[in-house]
Amino acid sequence: MKYILFSLCLAQALLAPISGEDIPVMARGAIPFWIDRAGFDTPDSLNYGELYLQCPCQHLTFSELNDHQRAAYRVEATFFSKRDSMPFKWEKQIVTDAGTDLRDQMITEALSFRIAPGTYRVHIRLKDLQANAEGTCELAFTMPEFDNAAPTISDIQFAHRIDAANTQTTRNLVKNGFKIVPNARRSIATTLNIYFELYGLATGEGRAATFDLAYALLDTAGQRIKNFPSARYRKPGATTIKTESLDLQGVTPGQYVLKITARDNGTGKMTTRQRAFSIQKPALATDPASLKRYYKQIRYIATKTERETYDTLSAAEKVEFILTFWKKRDPTPLTPENEFATEHFRRIRYADEHFSARPGQKGSDTDQGRIHIKYGLPTDIERNPFSATGKAFEIWTYEHLNYYEFVFLDRLGDGVYEMIHATMPGERYNPNWRDQQAIGDQTDPTSLPAEAFSPP
């Protein structure tokens, strides 16, 4: 069970100097998280605002209660401005499904509030209620003053995914019938998903009852990089809601600005809104050789379900699977380096360089390579060379893994060691392995009777 407490406090103060740059902000402290924001119009004097929070669950403290994973944290956002505001508090509770482990997932929240147009300095604190840990950040937030006498566009919200909402959708992610999973970092790979609202459309008939929308990709200097075809829509009224998915495949990774232009064909009036975002490094290649290589790189550490799932996916889906596979194992997802992946590929290189293999194989394809990649270097290696009574063998011991042992035999005398026994659950188990070590025995360890193997 996971409890989330969120309080928003509005305070009166002089606006302190702070960067007004409209970009996502990363928190400082023991709990890293990202924050973004957006503002939308309402019929009254207080507009509708949202803060988008993205935080890796692994930085929170979890406890187990009745087969539920429970985490508790509080987010406090204090708004400072020259304008008088009444403080208010918002609370929320979330219960996860039984047995759900959130620690390799990401918390994504949309935290809503009502606020008058103006510029604010916002101080945000996320505190783990089960540990003495927190993260903090500050950002500038400008709530636009929308003029409905002419076309006006709301702030642009960036999203990981936008779907039609249903009764099962988490309510804080629902806006005007859509489930919008916020992209608090505004960082994409190839597809840019956005939500925005258009206000101040005039009524009319025929062509006057339509409006046009156009999108353009700009660089940070304002130069146009890419135009998207404009489209014409019928006005549903004075206000309309738009979602869009723009294909940016082939665009060089870097910082960009999305510019939206709207024209009311009844009045001829136009309006624009733009917002910065970033494109990640190119996605992985999708040719058959690359897809096979990606699988080989994860085969020893992926779960059985993950391996089976990979085989059922299309080429594009396999690339997305691999990216997600590494992302959810990243111990510090808000930093550029994935330390888990770095260590994993270091182990693969070590295996290729240090373990003998037969023709057509690499060291990482051998039994010793597999165990090293999964568990790292053993605490102790007992090396037993070839003798008059037995073949060469090695015993690897992992003290930090309950003193589990792995026995490797140079069965053919070619320097390639095959695993014939292990005390690790799920690995090959053969308590009579010394019979195979004796001179004259040519038993293939991979063809032992079924009872000689422990269940997976």
As for the number of domains, it is: 4
Average pLDDT figure: 84
Distance between the termini: 30 Å
**Sequence of strands across the biggest β-sheet:** 3-12-11-8-1-9
Rough outline: elongated
List keywords for this structure.
456 residues; mainly beta; Immunoglobulin-like; 4 domains; 6-stranded mixed sheet; 6-stranded antiparallel sheet; 6 helices; 28 strands; disordered N terminus
Notes on the structure:
It is a single chain. The chain has 456 residues and is mainly β. It has 4 domains: 1-145, Immunoglobulin-like; 147-282, Immunoglobulin-like; 283-328, no CATH class; 334-452, no CATH class. Helix content is 14%, strand content 39%. It has 6 helices and 28 strands. It has helices at 288-298, 304-312, 315-327, 339-354, 367-375, 433-437, and strands at residues 2-12, 25-26, 28-29, 34-40, 47-56, 63-65, 68-70, 72-81, 92-94, 106-115, 118-128, 133-143, 152-153, 157-164, 174-175, 178-182, 187-188, 191-199, 210-219, 224-227, 231-234, 240-247, 254-264, 270-279, 380-384, 393-398, 404-409, 418-422. A 6-stranded mixed β-sheet has the order 3-12-11-8-1-9, with no helix packed on it. Strands 13, 14, 15, 16, 18 and 22 form a 6-stranded antiparallel β-sheet that branches. Strands 17, 19, 20, 21, 23 and 24 form a 6-stranded mixed β-sheet that branches. Helix 4 runs antiparallel to helix 5. The longest helix is centred in the last third of the chain and has 16 residues, at 339-354. The two termini are 30 Å apart. The model is unreliable at 1-19, 86-99 and 447-456 (pLDDT under 50).
